[in-house]
UniProtKB/TrEMBL annotation:
Signal sequence residues: none
Record keywords, A-Z: Membrane, Transmembrane, Transmembrane helix
Name listed for the protein in its UniProt record: G-protein coupled receptors family 1 profile domain-containing protein
Membrane-spanning residues: 15-45, 66-84, 117-142, 163-184, 204-222
Length: 307
């Protein structure tokens, strides 16, 4: 319903295009949200396996080919678990905005029970898998550190928890953002469309539901030193971000006019000049000239900006 209201803010839609949006956009948004939850749990599970000594069976689970198969399997299962939701979607007149329409899902008693079971599975299984996997990682590290440093396991566990607490942020935020929508769906399984306050509350809960997907970078990459370094060095966006950060914080070169001309016009210098043609000091692939640093005996007395 939230997606349909956003489309209505852009343009007034007739019944037929809104019916397509109701059954396609809203359904896909629900499917992709659940897929993200399951994939987060799968990634946490694979990450926990890497902290243990892998035998032949565990090594086969963590291979790239099997990981792709697991991702495809999760996507197919989640789509199959949403078929009843796609079938039961209907389009009704919007009581809040006259002349427009709103999506509503009408379940039979059996489908309602099935939908509640699926809702619990989509929420608690990925959450439990994520929490258990993170605890296994901390337990494995604590066990090795306790043996290596001859300390107690409990003290090492507390220390590692303080170091890796950011691993718990993703499942906790996902749980907190999903609970309002879950409570509303269980408390008000059938909603009268004339109750405007309940429709607005449901819209707000659906908006909160997408917060974890919108801050994935902050939850998984920015909080991890290893992932963030890989992002800066191997990702196209990370390299571009670092380059723009360097350009915006580059020191403007200052040098006297006479010193610059002597350096650029010198035919036989006593040693190779570190300046390029624009007055920058060559340092690998970078060209910089900090203010106040001498250059072959010359210090910037009459500063001139060289562009």
């Amino acid at each position: 319903m939230l997606e349909c209201r956003l489309f209505q803010l852009i343009d007034s839609l007739s019944y037929i295009p809104f019916f397509i949006i109701c059954n396609l956009i809203s359904g896909l948004a629900s499917i992709f949200t659940r897929i993200c939850l399951w994939l987060n749990g799968l990634i946490a599970f694979h990450r926990s396996l890497q902290s243990f000594e892998l035998n032949h069976y565990l090594h086969r689970i963590c291979t790239k080919s099997n990981a792709i198969k697991q991702i495809v399997f999760i996507i197919v299962i989640v789509i199959l678990m949403h078929i009843h939701e796609l079938i039961c979607r209907v389009t009704l007149s919007d009581p809040v905005a006259p002349g427009k329409f709103v999506c509503q899902i009408k379940y039979s008693s059996d489908l309602l029970i099935l939908n509640q079971i699926f809702t619990f599975l989509h929420l608690f299984i990925p959450f439990s898998l994520h929490i258990i996997s993170t605890c296994l990682i901390i337990a494995s590290i604590s066990h090795r550190r306790a043996i290596l440093h001859q300390t107690t396991y409990y003290n090492q566990w507390i220390k590692q928890f303080q170091t890796h607490y950011h691993l718990f942020l993703a499942p906790l935020i996902a749980m907190l953002c999903t609970l309002p929508q879950l409570i509303l769906s269980l408390k008000f399984s059938c909603v009268d469309i004339s109750l405007k306050w309940l429709l607005r509350l449901n819209t707000s809960a659906n908006l909160i539901l997408y917060i974890p997907q919108s801050i994935t970078f902050l939850l998984f990459i920015y909080r991890s030193e290893v992932y963030f370094n890989i992002f800066k060095t191997q990702s196209i966006f990370g390299k571009h971000f670092c380059y723009r950060h360097y350009v915006n914080n580059r020191i403007v070169p200052h040098i006297t006019r006479d010193a610059l001309h002597r350096q650029l016009e010198s035919k036989t210098p006593t040693r190779k000049s570190p300046l390029d043609r624009n007055g920058y000091i060559r340092f690998g692939r970078f060209h910089i000239f900090p203010t106040g640093i001498s250059l072959n005996g010359f210090r910037p007395a009459d500063p001139v900006n060289v562009t």
